[in-house]
Every structure is written in structure tokens, then in C-alpha cells.
Amino acid sequence: MSNLRQHHIAQLKQREFDVLVIGGGINGAVAAAALAGKGANVALIDQGDFACETSSNSSNLAWGGIKYLENYEFLLVNKLCLSRNNLMRRYPSTVKEIRFLTTIQSGFRLPALFVYCGTLLYWLIGRCKTRIPLYFSAKKIKQREAAINIRNAEAGFEYSDCFLFDNDARFVFNFIRAGMDSGCISANYVSAKMAKREQGQWVVQAQDVVENTSFNIRAKVLVNACGPHVDQLNKILNIHTEVHHVFSKGVHLVVDKIGHNDKVLTFFASDGRLFFVIPMGQKTCIGTTDTRTDDPYAEVTEEDRQFILDNANTALDLSRPLTRADIISERCGVRPLAVKGNSNEEAWLQLSRKHIIETDAEQKCISIFGGKLTDCVNVGEEVCDAIQQLGLALTQDNADWYGEPDITEKHKFLKFAKEKKLDDLTPQYSSEDLSQRLWRRYGLQAFDIAADILQDSDAAKQLIENTEYLRAELKYTAEREMVTKLEDFVRRRSKIAMVLRTEDIVNAQGIQEACDILFGDEAQNKLAEFIDQTHP
């Protein structure tokens, strides 16, 4: 167990908090970061790792909700576009514009030109902050990307949205880190078993899942940010809400790179829903499914795999069809969709990913339903508003709690890196300069990591075969990122487990040394644990 985690668990046991946030996905991460940044005494716990469920299984896109135009949800699209633009502006190294190349098949429910007009409206709603959409004939589509099957294509178009340069879980963790930098006490693998109100505060019986020990956490207000498990926790807390969740399962498959352009290829799947072929460096992520489920712990089925493979093989012009053997890794997440009252199947088909925040003023409990990465900053701000309505003053209410460090600091770091020729050490598998990557992932801490790399030749050593991580990064991760299991690092602090098969990770040159840095004396046990979990 990391020293940082041990310190934070000791603080959870000893201190009394203004707010305890339960759940370390995107909603919990932004709630904690916003509250801590605005001066509240905050704690955050998650029964698993941070971003271990829905928030690490998205399409890695930060988009304005173009598909909601078909349901005339113009206000929602406007809100999401503004949120997307804000993320682009405040996280320029992480949230980047990407082009979507969309093909409309003959016989589609709407004419291609009409759909293209929708992209122009979308661009206007987005305040023209991205490149203008373009309309193409089927022949022009083929010229722009040979991997697209145009045999039944009517026409298509290209428009812009955004993607997360690293991955969704890394984006979430950066909010966790921002919260901790502002004083938030956070711990992964700590579950809330029971809770009751005593003398004007919540007393939560928590369990350290790693050490199998129990202790109490005291806080004036609870924020239930458990994603798909919000309703389950509210039942434990005896909190009754008007809103509840229904679930949609989304599955993606990762294969070797398809196509020659770093564009998102967009189609409409056989069930009429949007279907993406998303670039992921030297790999491609294909999906998503959209299946009603009652299980927040849904898994990938053979039917899911076949649906994605069949649609990909239909939409793409490949030298040979994709098969089960081409799958490198899988992503499976349950989208919690917020509904009021009773819902039926027809209503579920029209549900968006909008969030709803419901407050029980008497019990001092706030529940966050729904939500998506694009709109995360608004969730943080709204939770802060709800906290103040419950009578808790935020001493730094106007604090700027999110965004990358000031641009002058970035220029200072890049100048330092250029003078020291840091980019000469860029790993061969990296798609960008080392200096840019360090800044994007670690912000101001990039100065310290770069200093270690320049002072110690061993610190510049690339450890895990076929990845870009250096020894200095592993050292920083071990000290500052609360990696408790090997899966935390390879699946969520990085995207190694998304682009390498599990057996390649286990057999990679340097994996044992990486475990030594991350876990010290526990290295062998942590590697064995990872092997057992991935090879049941």
C-alpha cells in the first residue's frame, strides 16, 4: 500500500469533514475538486480504484451531443457544446479537436444533405469554435479514407468534436489529483458499508478493502456520486429520491489500427445508433453498443462482440474481415441514465446523458444522477451551489478550481526542456515529444520529473516493453498517484492495458522492475494478483 494512501486513510479516521464524497468517477472527482478548490474540508472514497467503472469505459470523446439534435433537444446540445468549448479552452493539452468522417447509407431514415445541414446547425450552436463541416460525395469519402466501404453509400460529411488525448480514466484522475492538491483527503478501495446521522453529522462505517479493516468517517454532508450505484447507496442511507437510474451497456473493442487518417469514422449501426471507429494511437477503438440492462456490473458477451465485428466489417472495406482473434482488449461500461418516476422502454430509447442533482435538505445528502465527461465542470459547480444551499459556506467561492496551469508555466517548462534537449529522450513508441507528454499528464510536476530524468540516466530508461513510460514516471506514479494494484496503473493511470494484450503485459520485458518501483516489497504479490485476476 502506498505511503500516500496510508496517510490519507489515517486522516479519514482522525478528522471530521464538511463533505464526504462517495464515488471516484467523473462526478465524484469534479465534486471533490470543486469543493476543495473553493475552500471546503472534503474527503472522497471509492470502493474500487478511481474511475474504475463507467468513467474508464467511455468512447474517450468530449462531444457536444450532436445526436440529441434528432430529438430536438436544442437546449441540451447548446449546454454540452458550451461545456465542450470550455474544456478545449481550459485543457488545451488534453481535450483536442478531432474530425469525424460520417457516411450515410442509401435508404437511411434521413437524406444525407439534410443530416449535413444538422452538422452546420451543430457548428453554429457550438459558436463556430471548431472547423466548419464539409459535405462529400461517396467518391470523395473514399478518397479521404480508403478503409470506408462506400458500395451502398449515398454521401457523407466531415465535422468536428473533441477527444481525450490520453484516456478517460486519466482525465478523471487529474481531477482527483487537483482535489488532493487543494487539500481533499482521498482514498481508493474504501467502501461505505453503513451510515447514520448522529448529532448533526453523518457517521459512515467504512471498510479498507485492501487491509480488511473498518473505521468511521464523520462529515456534515454526504455527496452520493456512485454512478450506476447511486440508487443502491441511497437505499443503504435510507434516502428517498424522485430521480433514479436505468442502465445502458456500452461495449467497445480495441484492434490494430484501421485506416490511414487520425479521424473518427462514424456510421449508423444496424440498430440505427451511432457507431464509431476511433483512433487510439497505433490502435483503433470500435463501438459502441447500446443495450438496456438491469445489471450495473454488466460484462461483454459474445453477442456484443459479434454485433461490433459485424457492423465494422459491413461499414469498412478491409483486406480481410475482423474476427475474434483481432481483439486486443475490450471496454465495457454501464451508462447510468437519469429518469424521474417510472420509465418505459420507449422513454428509455430517448434518454440523454444529462445529469440531475437532487438534494435531501433534511438528511444533508446530495445525489448525482446521470452525467457525462463533457459536462463535468457544470456538475462540480452545481454541487458547490447545492452545498451552500445546505448552509455550508465556501470560503473561496470564486476560486478557479479547474484547468491546466497557467500558459506561462507551460512555456517556461517547454523552454527548459528545449535547453536541456529533453525531447532527445522521447521513447520510440511515443507519438509526441516527451516534453509535451510530461506536461499534459503531470502539469507542474513535469518540472520535477524532467529534473530526475536529466540527473539520472536510469530515470530516462524506458521500462515496460512496447510502452512509452520511463522510470522517472513510474517513480512519480508510485509516490503521488495512489496505485494500489497493477491494474490501476496499466488500465487507468495509463492505457497500457487497452493497447497491449494481457499476456503481452505479463511477459513484457521490464514489467517486474516496474512492479518493484510501484510496490516495493509487495511487487511479486501484486504481479501475481494481476495475473490471477486477468487469467481466472
What CATH first level of the largest domain would be assigned? Answer: Alpha Beta
> Structural class given helices, strands, pairing?
alpha+beta
In round numbers, the mean pLDDT is 93
Number of helices: 19
CATH-derived topology of the largest domain: D-Amino Acid Oxidase, Chain A, domain 2
User: Major β-sheet, in short?
Assistant: 10 strands, mixed
The CATH superfamily of the largest domain is known as: D-Amino Acid Oxidase, subunit A, domain 2
**How many angstroms separate the termini?**
24 Å
How many domain regions? 3
Question: What percentage of residues falls in helices of 4 or more residues?
Answer: 25-40%
Query: What's the alpha carbon Rg, rounded to whole Å?
Result: 23 Å
Silhouette? globular
Secondary structure: number of strands: 18
Low-confidence stretches: none
CATH architecture of the largest domain: 2-Layer Sandwich
Describe this structure in words.
This protein is an alpha+beta fold and 536 residues long. It folds into 3 domains: 3-55 and 168-242 and 351-389, 3-Layer(bba) Sandwich (FAD/NAD(P)-binding domain), CATH 3.50.50; 74-165 and 246-342, D-Amino Acid Oxidase, Chain A, domain 2, CATH 3.30.9; 407-534. It is 37% helix and 24% strand. It has 19 helices and 18 strands. The protein has helices spanning 3-14, 26-37, 74-90, 112-125, 138-144, 168-181, 230-237, 302-315, 345-349, 376-389, 407-419, 434-442, 446-455, 471-480, 486-493, 496-499, 502-506, 511-519, 523-534, and strands spanning 16-22, 42-45, 61-62, 95-105, 134-137, 153-164, 185-187, 190-198, 201-208, 213-224, 243-256, 264-268, 274-280, 283-287, 291-293, 329-340, 356-360, 365-369. The strands form 2 sheets. Strands 3, 4, 5, 6, 11, 12, 13, 14, 15 and 16 form a 10-stranded mixed β-sheet that branches. Strands 1, 2, 7, 8, 9, 10, 17 and 18 form an 8-stranded mixed β-sheet that branches. Strand 1, helix 2 and strand 2 (42-45) form a beta-alpha-beta unit. Helix 2 runs parallel beside helix 6, helix 12 (434-442) crosses helix 13 (446-455) and helix 14 runs parallel beside helix 18. The longest helix has 17 residues, at 74-90. The protein is globular. The model has no long low-confidence stretch (mean pLDDT 93).
